[in-house]
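Technical annex B. To support the medicinal chemistry partners, we prepared a structural model of the target in complex with S-adenosyl-L-homocysteine, based solely on the information shown next.
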Amino acid sequence: MNTNLEDTYRHKGLRKQLVEQLRAKGITNEAVLSAINEVPRHIFLDSSFVELAYQDMAFPIGSGQTISQPHTVAFQTQLLQVEKGMKVLEIGTGSGYQACVLAAMGAKVFTIERQRNLYFKTKGIIEQLPFRVKTFLGDGYEGLPTYAPFDRVIITAGAPSIPEALVQQMKTGGIMVIPIDQPENEGQTMLRVVKSDDGSLKQESFGDFKFVPMLKEIGND
Ligand code: SAH
């Protein structure tokens, strides 16, 4: 675990530059940019990557998983249209960075990770930070029926289809942002799904991305 919680002026300066890069790449939501400016991304990486924490790149975080690229985090968060006080369910805690960005925007975040070792490592990091994030070890395909309904659902792993249980756990008018597998190009298309009054789903797509796969059941792999 990275126990170096220091957030220096240098880190803060690098974060400001990252925010400007994201702005240049088309991220316009000021609440999202301000959350990226607030969350110390270097703390979520293994210490050998600290120097690179504020490049717009994905990195390995152990257990074969990655912390998403800042642009992808900002892009998904912007699509999610988060407002203060909303209940947000995240599938794929990974490093915990995306969850803390959502919490920095004032959301009440519930996040599920299926990978046992990563779950405990990340829980340890989040507990040392001032963000309100509840972590769960479990299978994201099942969601968190006990805590439903959610205003927003964000999936941060490549899913073969929209998981039905997660749709059930969304409020009417709720929004889900989910990368859906496109087997022909080995990546995913980002979808925003709105649950309308009659329960039907309205979908829009927002370009191609590359995520690790959304797998079933808790694993030690
Ligand atoms: N949001 C993360 C990026 C996660 S990478 C971050 O900010 O760092 C995707 C994560 O989803 C991996 O950690 C992977 O183990 C997890 N995952 C894959 N399938 C899952 C499932 N069914 N339920 C919960 N987590 C899952």
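Notes passed to the chemistry partners:
Residues 65-68, 91-92, 94-95, 97-98, 112-115, 118, 139-141, 156-157, 212, 214-215 surround S-adenosyl-L-homocysteine (CB under 6 Å).
The mean pLDDT is 94.
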